[in-house]
Amino acid sequence: MEEDLIKRLEAAVTRLEGISSNGGGGGVVSLSRGGDFSSGAGTDVASSDPSILAYEDLISQCVGRALTAAEKIGGPVLDVTKIVAEAFASQKELLVRIKQTQKPDLAGLAGFLKPLNDVTMKANAMTEGKRSDFFNHLKAASDSLSALAWIAFTGKDCGMSMPIAHVEESWQMAEFYNNKVLVEYRNKDADHVEWAKALKELYLPGLREYVKSHYPLGPVWNASGKPASAPAKAPPGAPAPPPAPLFSSESSKPSSSSNQKQGMSAVFQQLSSGAVTSGLRKVTDDMKTKNRADRSGAVSAVEKETRTSKPAFSKTGPPKMELQMGRKWAVENQIGKKDLVISECDSKQSVYIFGCKDSVLQIQGKVNNITIDKCTKMGVVFTDVVAAFEIVNCTNVEVQCQGSAPTVSVDNTTGCQLYLNKDSLDTAITTAKSSEINVMVPGATPDGDWVEHALPQQYNHVFTEGKFETTPVSHSGA
């Protein structure tokens, strides 16, 4: 440790001597926090700052480990890992610039952070389109990059969690897919397991400990530095930027139902005034289907195609995600949505998930109870639940508990993968009329692999001494 510190100090002294011999911009450069980096030597001095050197160590060690594992796998996994490395390199350059730049406003901050945002969107683009065999790798890497948004923290009122908490919360969503990689390849390919472990350790403890040591309250801007450069305007023929960027000049807020209420009020107003039916024609007897000669019992091919076409949303109703009466979160008919998040919730509220398919919901905070009903290929990541987590009438669902849950109930469900953490191992699991229920628990050591336990679905009932005794069926190799 002391030898590394001496080497860093020697490197810093060497750089300063080189700056001094070259004129250094004609002035003395301050090394104090918030010093003047506006001279031509500012970049060199900022690059030798201990926080920048520590970030270089993070890249060389943790990012380098992930790249080494990805090179053994190749293909899309290597491509997305290179984007992760590019994102970390981009953030390092931004950290150097922050030491030379005044704190911008929200619009200026979005432009300042645009290089990092562009790299992140490249990773997001790899998860879209036709799903590849490495979708879980791509999704884990892509979602993990949201942790780098800690650099956008400007204060308690900016709408973000504190930097350390933001890194931890951002990894939780990525961990859902990272765990899938570990489970799928733990007995098949050690290279994929090593990649998943390297990706996790890049953020926890890697990035988290770096932020904790150097920027626990966010980046430190230079009050006497140069103003942040404004974002460049796009040329007239340039396409519009992609939606949902990592950074935005406005804080993300939960959707409100006020617009829906206004719309319904307008509908009822029109109904009461009679204006809605004013333009309708009267249906005469010859217009009725039973009296039309051109109508037969045969169904044309065009009608068949129209009737069998896939609807834009679930047959049961339009997509919905809202807080009802301040007590119940309703998440209904969501199809193909991988980024559903409930961030503002409390222990008095419940969450009801109905009719969703091929979607992922993250619940950030403690709620009273959670119910999944009639969902297919649905993933739910939650922190804590006060009463119970219920799974009813579902097919192929995955649930990850990151805190505690007294009870998990599975009823009339086919295919359920349940992930428990070390704080939820005492959870009582109740199953009824269900099959293919697997529970994943952490290994014996922090670095150990997840251990899978299959819950029994077959039982022996033996009449003994006036009563039936029931025992689960055990299979060899189970």
Name a few traits of the molecule.
478 residues; alpha/beta; 37% helix; Adenylate_cyclase-assoc_CAP; actin binding; adenylate cyclase binding
Descriptive report:
By secondary structure, this protein is of the alpha/beta class. It contains eleven helices and 16 strands. It has helices at 2-21, 42-47, 50-73, 75-98, 106-112, 114-126, 135-144, 163-185, 190-214, 258-273, 301-308; strands at 320-324, 328-332, 340-342, 350-354, 357-367, 369-373, 376-385, 388-392, 395-401, 407-411, 414-419, 428-432, 435-441, 451-454, 459-464, 467-472. The strands form three sheets. A seven-stranded mixed beta sheet has the order 1-2-4-6-8-10-12, with no helix packed on it. This is Adenylyl cyclase-associated protein. One of its GO terms (cellular component) is cytoplasm. Residues 318-455 form the C-CAP/cofactor C-like domain. Residues 248-258 have a biased composition (Low complexity).
